[in-house]
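Q: My labmate handed me this sequence with no annotations at all. I'd like to see what the chain might look like in three dimensions before we decide whether it's worth expressing. Could you predict it?
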Amino acid sequence: MDRGGSPRIARAEAELDREGALVVTGPPGIGKSALLDALAERAADRGGTVHRLRSQLPDRGVPFALVADLLLGVERRHLERLPAPQRDAVEQVLRHEAPSDGGPDPLGVRLALGAVLKAAAPALIVLDDVHWADPASAAALACVQALSTAVVAACPDPGGAPEFLYGSPQFTPPPLAVDEVAALLTGEGLPARLAGRVHRCGGGNPRITLDIARAVAALPRPPHPLDELPVPERVHAMARRRLDDVGPPVRRVLLTAALADRPTHALLRRSAGRDVEEELRAAARAGLVTTEGNELRFTAEVFASQLTDDSSWAERAAAHRSLAGAVTDPVGATRHRALATDDIDARLADELEAAATTARTRGDRGRAAELALLAARRTPAALNQQAAVVRRFVTAADDAGRAGRVDLARRAAAEVLDHSTDAGERVRALLAILDAAGQALDDLDEVFARAADEAAGDPALLAAVQLRLAWKANLCDGDPLRARGAAARAAVLAGRAGDAKTSVLALTMQARLERILGDPHAEATLERALGAAIPGEPVGVRNQPRYLRIRHDLFDDRLERARDGLLALLPVVERSGETEDLVEVLRSLAETETRAGRCAAALRYADWVLRITAEAGISPGPSWYSAAFAEAAGGSFERALAFAGRGARASEEEHDQVFLSRNLHVLGLVQLVTGSAADAVEQLLRVRAAETAQQVADPSLLRWPGDLAEALAVSGRGVEAEQLIEQYAGVARELGRDSTLGALDRARGVGLT
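A: Here is what I predict for the chain of 753 residues:
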């Protein structure tokens, strides 16, 4: 099976057909053998004769071992027709006769091989692990390309192919993209939402992907989005073998690269104090690293993690010391100096805290969280330092929550709960875990319960907890009525506590839910939120009133105003370092550009969203929806269906009811426009059921009613279509949703024709 899909096969097959030979190269697990299997299967389907052969290391010393395997697959009648000298050579190769002195006649073997291949033409010889082929067989096979016989061979290194394949075109199967990893995972019955993390770990290597998938499948239950991904020993062993193959000098340079933040060739030269290009070229040839621009990247995270796991503390400390003197950024230098020692040092802790502040100002919340965590752990344990320790752990938790770094948020929160008895600090730490979780708030009921318990009696803390409960009730539980109640309680509690920031965020959430529920007070509530000043740094642009105002502009087709507002917000969220904010603004830009007909821009924003989602490991359902929506309008229907299907599965896995409906809507819409009206009806009825269950009353938020009515009309279910049109036309008129009325009128027109 070609794990990468048919485009790879088509490109390789075209090259093979054009040149008559092809050498497939690439690291272990990249899919060389799978590609050979696919090419062999296609050749057989066209009626050709296929000889599928694999060499092994012991074969190198056995003359004609590979030819013997080929001849064993030839019909006996072809061998019997050979002239006696050629037949004798074949019989000796097959050990049907004892070899003569000096072994089988090489010319007789070559002529016999040519004759049997010519009789079976057209033929394809498929040679796996051809670098282990014995020299005698390689010499005999040199004749085949003149006999209407194509050859496709696989070896890890292009230089390892036999001489007769020199000059043949080479093809390296590219790594799987994130969406291809998602397709592979769902094909194995596993959660699509794991695709980003699996892709980062394995770099798109199909074998690593499958091994991790099988490790996940062996778990008692699928991992929660916040759980660590299981990496089986087989993957560790593979990474170890490939790193061992390049030797200690290369591994030392790569360890430094693994510990560096965005390593470059220049940084590694400065760190080593010498030229390291030879080591880096060896690592690149081994498929361990690539260079993009001036930056060195590991092809898979597992190689970097294996290097650090297998190194000693002294080796890591030495690498960090060399990096501290080589980096040009003071923040990076402070980080490396701290990681080069275990010393408890008040001065170093202060420097780390200052570095965290700088990173935060730059918008690098993840780095700020790491530095604040280091600062807390380097702070002396003296009684007069305990407040500083806790403050630094709390700050680390806050930064991790805003960066979507669940791993750091959990570590920092655990330290706060161990060190602090202050309810405010303990609740902030727990809320950081919830904030880092993004859309994946399901199964975090224990964290919610503990936060509510710690907040008891404090209106400000309770308001913060109620606000997150409102987010969860809407996203995960699909209950906007309950969510509105929680948001309203949060607003009241925050007002009582004099917490203007939480009050504004709660009013914004209340307005969002009132719009969903068709409550006419939604605009007035939003105006109240917009009219209140937020003191200090705002928490989460996506939860602020000005962003909700932009969303309302989008819903109501004020597209230019929405676009202008989003473009103004884009640099703000890029500076803030909040991954979820950046993703949300980019998703809205993709949706706005799609509705405005600027499809190239929409696809560009959607691609940006997909990259960030994969790198950050956040919930993929919303990003796959944005990609599906953009592809449906200006890209590929096939890709739109694939993204929407994966987005629906991921949203179901995370109990994200909001984006389950949205992904199903795109599925139905694409099926409708591609002529599968019955399938479209099925998907859009699921959307209707989900939106009804979620009590969504405003039809402008997700414009499925017109699409379902059109699908029903095309399917010959005109009465149902007319009933649906009448039902939602009344709602749209009452709420003043002209765009919905237009879509319903179009559906009625389809029914009439």
